Amino acid sequence: MFFHRLGICCSEFLGLFKVMFQVVYGVWKLSALSKPRITIFGGGRLDQKTKYTQQAFDLAERFVENGVTVLTGGGAGVMHAANCGALSKTKGKKHVKSVGIGVKELGEGQNPCVQEYFELEYFFARKWLLTRYSVAFIIFPGGFGTLDELAEVITLVQTKKLPRVPIILFSKSYWKDFMEWIHFSAIEKGLIKKEHLELFTVTDDLDEVFDIIHEFCECMMTQKKKK
Amino acid sequence: MKFKYIRECFSLFLHSMRVGWELMCSFIKLSKLRMPVITIFGGAKVDKEGDYAKKAYEIARKFVEHEVSVLTGGGPGIMDAANCGAASVHKEHKCRKSDTIGIAVSGIDAWFASECYYDTIRVSYFFMRKWLLIRYSVGFVIFPGGLGTMDELFDLLNLLKHHKIPEFPIILIGKEYWQPLLDFQDMALKKGFITDKRLAELFIVTDDVDDAFKIVYESCKLFKSK
Asked: Which of A151, B21, B109, B129 is deepest in the core (most CB within 10 A)?
């Protein structure tokens, strides 16, 4: 029994060591990128010709034009579109503006538009890197993976483990049912406080998304300079 | 400039050493538990006298009576109710001290102290808690909860989807409460964001505690026979 337990602990320790190494390597790569950095989350199953991917493309393009670095999950669908949008404005320049962080053994693989890409062993390490090293989050429609990331970011901000950052859910019609759950189940039963609704914005307007985040980034930059 | 990167990486290295140390301590504590283990998730803001909290108490008690240990998030509300339910068994039988552990995140609900007697592990980050809870459990019962519970639910589903963990049963309690979320999922399925039909059947929504217990206990039996 004792040796069994010891064995489990040792193997866990080795696994942890590997993850730690990967995360530090990831941070090494990420810290070389220019600030501010934002993350675009979204479904990996979407076709490149749909409305949402086009919008992700446009948005990423605009951000890169204004000197913002775009991080994504490095996969297909919305992530692919966002990376491509970011890449299209950096061609011929040296700066790295389009970054993907993937997870091993998903069968997703990296999309062709990332300039910098690395893979991690576990999901939590990816989420950790994506949430810690960016200042704003845009969440496009997506499946379970996207929902996971959305819930994680909101929880971290709600419990003040992350500073208050803009979180934007894109497409009102897609998130309608989700918001209904929050309004009619969670808030009514008192499981989510009403003030937590202010932590994120739901919108259909690309300009609004851009304005909110741009303002926030500039605000941060001026604060840094004052210090 | 280069120096700044090195400093940043070094501080992260120290951080991860701490994370590793805390996880090791938790592993040692968790490995003392009687296997198999199941996890009960739920909201912290749920009224302790309420219907859901009572159900959580009942189901946790039942699990411990059938020699299954119960893990929770170590906070107030549903989590505390489940811990108390599990702890109430050995109080009566005066047998083993711990069949239940709460894994709390430090800095959250710091004011909270339970009336019941059970072990708590404190970790410093959310991802560690989720990691520990999900890694060691063979079944999950999810009671109504807010954003944190939703986080845990989708984390689980995402891991299941990518076969990062085996297919363990996930039970959602409270049909009425989760209905809008199910509608949302249907819509996502129709629009092609969720392609796998299997995923939609991964979790079971019920109001009946006995049903939930039976399904999760099957999974525990499988674990025991291994």
From this structure: B129
Burial (0-12, 13-18, 19+ Cβ within 10 Å), B15: middle
Reported pTM: 0.86
Cβ <8 Å between B180 and A177: yes
Distance CA A213, CA B82 (A): 41
At A162 the pLDDT is 86
Three-class DSSP category at B74 = coil
Is A144 in contact with B199 (Cβ distance < 8 A)? yes
| Cα B95 to Cα B89: distance, rounded to the nearest angstrom | 9
B200: contact with A, CB 8 A cutoff: no
Chain B contacts of A200, Cβ < 8 Å? none
**CB environment A203-225: b (16+ within 10 A), e (fewer):** beeeeebbebbbebbeebeeeee
Residue B35 in contact with partner chain A when CB distance is under 8 A: no
CA distance B25 to B3: 33
Reported as a pLDDT band with limits 50, 70 and 90, residue B111 is confident
| Partner residue opposite A191 with nearest CB, options B24, B144, B188 | B144
DSSP A129-195: HHHHT-SEEEE-S-SHHHHHHHHHHHHHHHTTSS----EEEE-HHHHHHHHHIIIIIIITTTSS-GG
Question: Are B180 and A181 an interchain contact pair (Cβ–Cβ within 8 Å)?
Answer: yes
The DSSP element (H or E) to which B76 belongs, if any, is: none
Residue in B with minimal Cα distance to A194: B146
